[in-house]
Design goal:
Strand order of the largest sheet of chain B: 1-5-6-11-10-9-7-8
Number of strands of chain A: 25
CATH superfamily of the largest domain in chain B: Bira Bifunctional Protein, Domain 2
Structural class of chain A: alpha/beta
CATH topology of the largest domain in chain A: D-Maltodextrin-Binding Protein, domain 2
Helix content of chain A: 25-40%
Largest interface: A-B, 29 and 19 residues
Number of domains of chain A: 4
Number of helices of chain B: 15
Distance between the termini of chain A: 75 Å
CATH class of the largest domain in chain A: Alpha Beta
Number of helices of chain A: 15
Shape of chain A: globular
Radius of gyration of chain A: 24 Å
Number of strands of chain B: 16
CATH class of the largest domain in chain B: Alpha Beta
Radius of gyration of chain B: 28 Å
Largest sheet of chain A: 6 strands, mixed
CATH architecture of the largest domain in chain A: 3-Layer(aba) Sandwich
Strand content of chain B: 15-25%
Largest sheet of chain B: 8 strands, mixed
Shape of chain B: elongated
Structural class of chain B: alpha+beta
CATH architecture of the largest domain in chain B: 2-Layer Sandwich
Oligomer: heterodimer
CATH topology of the largest domain in chain B: BirA Bifunctional Protein, domain 2
Chain lengths: 479, 412
């Protein structure tokens, strides 16, 4: 009796964020639609509308090449920039680039500030210590080696690389649409490292051993279509503005304030404190807003990046979260970055999380369960250093750390066993059927500074004045 | 049990370590007798020591184990030393630069990532460096020292191949490439892809012809270089490099040292500026060296000519035959029958006395049966102990340790 061929299950890793709309449009047009794959979605696990054996999960774009390379997913869609970032460090990653999907085009530039004085031809000869700021540390290191820079430091950042040169970095490696957009950021492109666009990638093992041609054919159909409406979709990017007049002034103090979720509460706090920052409110992020205190320079950067920047003396003060300061200090215990004032807003708990059906109520239970499994505990976190320390402190010996860039809830239970995450109310965790088994600490926004610059430097009086302004305003917030 | 050893790591078992020590001791003895002094450099160095132009190629650098230290918030990376020479050059600059010359040697491990994990990622080297001497006699000294060490290891069939980085770089200069192209080409050939050199398109057909001649021919003597020099198309700089090369080969000819000229024999000569040499045994590379006159100024020292070599311990260990038979003559087993304090004390005293006169004395509490000739048994009867000659199956009761030592043929 003829039997119907059972199709092997196929899993896709799909991007959230800027690639989502164009990717969803492409999938709908080629007949590979996933319900709920929309910007507004609250679910991470998706099912193909037509093909019962095809499922998908939504990830941060940056996580996708890794998820596909380790074999958790057969296919993934993400920018070529993140694929190359992985391959720069791990050239033998099990990835196959299947097709250029042609949308979200851009270039990765090595760029310097237009106010700096950098001659590309002479870079390898100069004895300088080149500071390179980037979201792509592996590509930056490879580029620096290929350019034969004699000495260089790569500062990995979570974002806003354009804000650093010339004062806080010599070079930035960053992605923009083209030369016009990079020049709008007041940067001069020195070298184009890569032209990028969205790519379809496959796991090498799946490619070699599994029949995945059906899915490839769907995409082939799309690439051959006459009209490609997904190419017309302009991805939603955070609008960033980096215009400024460069005036080197060694006396002014540098204050870093956060973009993203903390921007609203930080703005409110600063207003209460009498610090007015023009250009900090509104949809467009002005990376260098002006401040009513003329002895203060302000930059708007990612809060995750602040402790490292403060430790290096690039900023004298910064408004960030205690969580990010602790993550930094767990990695660099002798760092001079230190908490100065607790600001009282932005309260979150940093917690250890498992799925609700894990029969564990604390970390010891989880250790017991894991011991029976003969498998390494898979731990995912944005806070890799805090997570490492937590596991060491609890004598968890055999684990694997999966660094993530947000949306970690999606990883449980298929791709991780334990999350170290922050939560405000616990609502999102409950929605994803997760539960908290331990609270590591409570985090709030805080003002941080550099121990060394507090004590010496010609700026110490100004720093002290600023700390006092923050302390006074914070008193009302701390309950 | 699943294997817990890191990929690309090697355990040296007792018999391997014995051969390792044999090579190390032989190398040390030779170096000391040639008036070289031993140094040790730290395992960790700042990465920038190796990124300075002209030290390591980008492809080598991408295989360096580097990381941020616990205080590395400034982004300053540290590296597990990927090379033995560069740290010694740094040591020289920081400590010995006032000396006119320095002859230094070391036995060290170096760390380079290897993708398959089937070859060693941690490698051991015996290296010697002669700093402060620009004369060809320094190159010769090192070649002869390296060969002497290998011969002292009783390994035959050492082959010496010569190349010349100065000549090669002068020829590449003649291709008139843009700086970026030149770097790329150098990187390629340093990784051993010599064909890229002949494939490089150049307007100068003469140079191309020269290059293929140079790459294809494998000459055995300096006559070969003489012929090259006679070619009409050769430039002044290349000619002067050829002359330097010939100075060394004619000295080797005179000393009766056999060699083969093979320009392609050298890989990763990034910091070499003059003669490069390769040593191999039955086609396996066991050592290499060369002249690196620019390295010390590149990493911040004053103009100091230098040359050196390294022998590779890992292949050499496998070439040393294991000792056929363990020497059991100078070994004695002290068997302790009960662990009452006095018996144990006597046992330890006897063992100590034997060690003092050059024996290996093994204490036994478990009634072990090793194939030692001599076994001394200490029992509760404290005034005496029994000595057994296992080869003759003889037992004798003794009460004095010095009698026992005499009986074994030692002198007290």
């Amino acid at each position: 009796m003829p039997t119907e061929r059972r199709l092997e299950s196929i899993k896709l890793a799909l991007p959230k964020g800027k690639l989502l709309s164009a990717t969803a449009c492409l999938l709908n047009h080629i007949g590979l639609e996933f319900k709920n794959y929309t910007q507004a979605t609250r679910v991470y696990r998706l099912q193909s509308a037509e093909l019962p054996h095809v499922s998908a999960k939504i990830f941060q774009e940056k996580d996708i090449p890794i998820q596909v390379a380790v074999g958790n997913y057969d296919f993934g869609i993400c920018g070529l920039d993140w694929i190359e970032e992985l391959l720069a460090k791990y050239p033998s990653s099990a990835l196959v680039k299947i097709a250029d999907l042609e949308y979200d085009k851009g270039n990765l530039y090595l760029a310097a500030s237009q106010y700096g004085d950098i001659d590309f031809q002479e870079m390898s000869v100069r004895q300088e210590n080149w500071r390179i700021v980037t979201e792509y540390p592996n590509l930056a290191e490879a580029a620096a080696l290929n350019l034969r820079l004699r000495r260089f430091h790569v500062f990995p950042v979570w974002g806003a690389a354009e804000a650093y040169p010339p004062e806080n970095a010599d070079l930035a490696l960053l992605l923009t649409k083209g030369e016009t957009s990079i020049k709008e950021l007041n940067l001069l492109p020195l070298k184009t490292l890569l032209s990028t666009s969205a790519f379809l990638i496959a796991n090498k093992e799946s490619w070699q051993t599994k029949d995945i041609s059906q899915i490839i054919n769907y995409f082939k159909l799309g690439l051959e279509m006459q009209s490609k409406p997904w190419l017309e979709i302009n991805p939603k990017r955070i609008k960033s503005h980096n215009g400024f007049r460069y005036e080197p002034d060694g006396e002014k103090i540098w204050l870093a304030v956060p973009d993203g979720h903390q921007q609203g509460p930080a703005l409110k706090f600063l207003t209460q404190a009498g610090i007015e920052i023009e250009g900090y409110a509104g949809d467009v992020v002005y990376r260098r807003p002006s401040c009513n205190l003329d002895w203060v320079n302000v930059k708007v950067i990612r809060p995750q990046d602040m402790p490292l920047q403060v430790a290096n003396g690039n900023f004298d003060l910064a408004v960030t979260g205690k969580d990010w300061l602790l993550d930094h200090l767990s990695r660099f215990p002798t760092s001079p970055a230190t908490e100065l004032v607790e600001l009282g807003f932005g309260k979150v708990k940093v917690v250890a999380v498992v799925t609700q059906n894990t029969p564990a109520n604390n970390i010891d239970d989880l250790k017991q369960i894991q011991a029976g499994k003969m498998q390494r505990l898979r731990v995912a976190s944005e806070y890799v250093n805090i997570a490492d320390k937590y596991l060491h402190d609890n004598h968890v010996r055999w684990y694997k750390m999966i660094p993530t860039w947000g949306a970690s809830e999606a990883l449980l239970p298929e791709d991780a066993d334990l999350l170290i995450e922050n939560t405000q109310t616990g609502k999102t965790l409950a929605e994803h059927k997760l539960k908290v088994i331990d609270t590591l600490f409570e985090s709030t926004a805080c003002l941080i500074g550099n121990k060394n610059s507090l004590n010496n430097s010609n700026k110490k009086d100004r720093i002290a004045t600023m700390v006092e302004i923050f302390s006074k305003a914070a008193k009302g917030n701390i309950v | 049990m699943t294997e817990q050893k890191c990929k690309g790591a090697r355990d040296l078992l007792p018999q391997d370590t014995e051969r390792f020590r044999f090579i190390e001791d032989t190398f040390r003895r030779s170096c000391l007798s040639w008036s070289y002094q031993e140094v040790k450099t730290p395992t960790l160095e700042y990465l920038h020591l190796f990124t300075a132009a002209g030290t390591l190629t980008p492809s080598m650098l991408s295989k360096v184990y580097s990381f941020l230290d616990w205080d590395g918030w400034s982004g300053e990376r540290v590296a597990l030393r990927p090379d033995g020479t560069i740290p010694v050059a740094r040591l020289f600059i920081e400590n010995l630069a006032q000396q006119e010359i320095a002859r230094l040697f070391y036995v060290t491990n170096v760390f380079i990532f290897e993708e398959t994990g089937k070859k060693n990622r941690e490698k051991w080297q015996c290296g010697a460096e002669f700093l402060g001497n620009f004369k060809p006699t320094a190159d010769i000294e090192l070649i002869l020292l390296a060969i002497e060490v290998i011969r002292s290891l009783r390994i035959g069939n050492v082959e010496l191949k010569l190349s010349h980085a100065g000549l090669l770089k002068a020829l590449i200069q003649e291709l008139n490439l843009a700086p970026e192209e030149k770097h790329a080409l150098l990187d390629q050939i340093q990784d051993g892809n010599w064909q890229t050199l002949t494939q490089t398109k150049t307007s100068n057909a003469d140079i191309n012809k020269m290059l293929s001649l140079l790459l294809d021919l494998k000459g055995k003597s300096s006559g070969f270089l003489e012929n090259l020099k006679a070619l009409p198309q050769i430039s002044a700089e290349s000619k002067s490099q050829l002359e330097k090369f010939m100075e060394i080969t004619s000295l080797l000819d005179m000393l009766g040292c056999r060699y083969q000229i093979d320009i392609t024999s050298t890989k990763g000569f990034e910091y070499y500026t003059g003669l490069c040499f390769q040593l191999s045994v039955n086609q396996e590379r066991v050592g290499s060296g060369g002249r690196y006159d620019n390295l010390i100024p590149l990493i911040g020292g004053s103009n100091t000519p230098a040359c050196g070599f390294a022998l590779y311990l890992d292949p050499l260990i496998d070439m040393i035959p294991p000792k056929a038979q363990e020497n059991t003559e100078k070994k004695v087993l002290i068997r302790i029958k009960s662990i009452t304090p006095n018996v144990v004390k006597t046992g330890f005293q006897i063992a100590q006395s034997f060690r003092e006169v050059g024996y290996i004395a093994e204490l036994d509490f478990n009634n072990r049966k090793p194939n030692y000739r001599w076994v001394i048994t200490v029992e509760d009867k404290l005034s005496t102990f029994t000595i057994t000659d296992q080869t003759k199956n003889l037992n004798k009761e003794l009460s004095s340790i010095s009698d026992a030592i005499k009986m074994l043929g030692g002198s007290v």
